[in-house]
Design goal:
By secondary structure, the protein is of the alpha+beta class. It is built from four helices and three strands. The chain has one domain (4-116): K homology (KH) domain (GMP Synthetase, Chain A, domain 3). Helices cover 55% and strands 19% of the residues. Strands 1-2-3 form a three-stranded mixed sheet. The longest helix has 21 residues, at 4-24. It starts with a helix and ends with a helix.
């Protein structure tokens, strides 16, 4: 039997894939740059989803992409709910995920230390 936590994890994974697919097929907003969905966190009642995105580019490009995604949230939510046949599609909140940048910085530091020794 599936536990509520597993259901939320499975749903979050499906939502991440669906949003990534919608973004890959091309949202028409020119503000959205090269963005990747990194994670989806669902609230306990599954009504709200916090979508982490990583955007390659300057701070201005990242902010513009986030604005574009936020303004497309209603469209994305509608399409996602329709495709996934959800009775209630969660409200989407897009946030920047700096995890990839941090990981790259750590890799560079480790490489530098390795070269020094």
């Amino acid at each position: 039997m599936s536990t509520p936590g597993r259901r939320a994890e499975r749903l979050a994974s499906q939502i991440r894939e669906e949003i990534a697919g919608l973004m890959a097929r091309g949202l028409k907003d020119p503000r959205i740059g090269f963005a990747t969905v990194t994670r989806v966190e669902l609230s306990a009642d599954l009504r709200h989803a916090r979508v982490g995105v990583s955007v390659i580019g300057s701070v201005e490009v990242q902010e513009a992409s986030l604005e574009g995604l936020s303004s497309a949230a209603g469209f994305i939510r509608h399409e996602m709910g329709h495709r996934m046949r959800l009775r209630y599609a969660p409200e989407l909140t897009f946030v920047l995920d700096h995890g990839a940048e941090e990981s790259q910085k750590i890799e560079m530091l480790l490489q530098k230390l390795k070269e020094e020794h």
